[in-house]
Amino acid sequence: MNSKMVLNYCPNFYKIVNYDIDQDDNITNKLINIYQDYIFNIDLANIEETKLVKEIDNALARYIDDYEFRKNLKESILKVKIKKGCANILKIIVESIVSIFNNYEEYTTRNVYIARWI
Fold this sequence. Notes:
By secondary structure, the chain is mainly α. It has six helices and no strands. It has helices at residues 2-7, 13-17, 26-39, 47-65, 67-77, 89-110. It is globular. The relative contact order is 0.14.
């Protein structure tokens, strides 16, 4: 029952888990596994966790659709540092993915310009 409730927060779930991954693309495979592990182990009563589920869903949907973001996330996720003794590593990784996504969104929208035709 909890799984069906979680999917209400993840409109891109099937798009993400059914993504055709290249055989040698370990990072994408790991990201999708992290996504599934995280969303199915949250407390639906916790507003912060449900918000994070929506954000990771949007981020990975963008990852699938946007080649530039995919390239950016693959490079950036390898640089994420996790402190020893961290209680919830999965949550830290998910927050890092969302943070990278938010930075990417801010960066790409800032560089949009309208060409002027003469």
